[in-house]
Amino acid sequence: MDLDDRSRVHWRGGGSDFWPDDRGWRRRLVIALMLVGLLASLGLHVAIGWADALGALTFAQRLVGVLFLLAGVVEGIALPAVVDHWGRRQVRLSGALVLLGVLMTLATTSLLLFLWLQEREYIATVLIFLGLWLWSLWALHALIRDKVWRGIPHPRKFALGVTVTALMTAVSLGYSILYQPIAAPMHFVLRAEFGTPRTDSGSPYVHVPLVLYAKNDGGIPVYIVIDDYTVTGSLAKFSGSGDGLKEWKGDQEGGWWNPEAEAYRSDVTYEVVASGQFQGPGSTLDAGEEFKMEKVITLPKSTKYETLNADLQFAILRQDRGKIDDEFYNPKLSWIKSEGRYYCPPDECGEHVIYHGRVRYNTNLINVTRKPRYVAAFWAPEEAPDVFISSFNFKKEKKNQSIYGIYQGLDEGEVSREAERYGLVWASVNSEVSVRGLLKQAR
């Protein structure tokens, strides 16, 4: 109805723009607090949802990002509704819109605080979550005191719609964060095969082809965090007494032992013949994709090696659980002083190629409730490659440490937990051939 139509409405002491017994400063304070809280909540929803809506790997994860962006839109619509509800109330649903925005803030901040409590790591953003959570409780109390549901045409349907939306969001979150990464299997086909050697009568060398092959035969694309192929030659003495089986216990004082033993082989030693990287750290292997590399190993015809062993191994990280930032792809050389915080004197740390960068979880909800996580990988031609994920960030006060010193300063529980969360696992294959048999095949 037209409140200014004097034939229908009679005002005593003022008109439609006058609030009887109005405490204007209190209304303006409530409006200001409501606007600040909704603006902060809008920014939080957009910050969480934007990265997932545009860059998430799976449809479910992108859907979660879109839901957060839509929640941000609702928060934006609620901003003018605040001014109207505590103003002239020209829109009947203004109170309901504000109530919806406050309920979304309460639900989101409650979820964020719940996720934060799982780790209880100190981060500055937890103060924002806690502040918005307390604000939403105050705002909800103020709206209930005003009985804003009286302006809703069908309050039960409104409540049902809010409940269904919250349940759909919870199901989507649970599916994308928990179920899907666990249920999706991984499977790889790996091969390391020696080919037919080639030589000529005037050459003292034999060229042995080596074919390395990997195929992602599962349904999940992965990152290859670090990879390595190593060819070793074995030397051994003949044990006519058959005492070779007793040597499996190795060094008793050092706790070393050998999982293999042969009765007529003794004092087995291995020498690295060739070593290198396969596809390369930071590369990807999508579902159904394969990668093949051929190398030529050079041996002297007079070699004393009994066997050649080829090992292909790489550490993989599931893309449906995490994403590696671009900075990881740039290798750092530990023996060069210009590398800054990655430099370590070779006589103390050895010489390693280091790959280091930020790794993020598959949903931004987890990223904003945790300290940053980093993946670090180390490669050297005569050492086994190594990799770990943790909050360690090569701070300056921890420079001049070898990989072993770094590991001593890490929380083993954190390293194991992060590896499981991101699906960081190793895949490997081994192949062994007789050197004499290769030399007989040489063309």
UniProtKB/TrEMBL annotation:
Q: Where are the transmembrane segments?
A: 29-51, 63-83, 95-116, 122-144, 156-178
Annotated keywords: Membrane, Transmembrane, Transmembrane helix
Q: What is this protein called?
A: Multisubunit Na+/H+ antiporter MnhC subunit
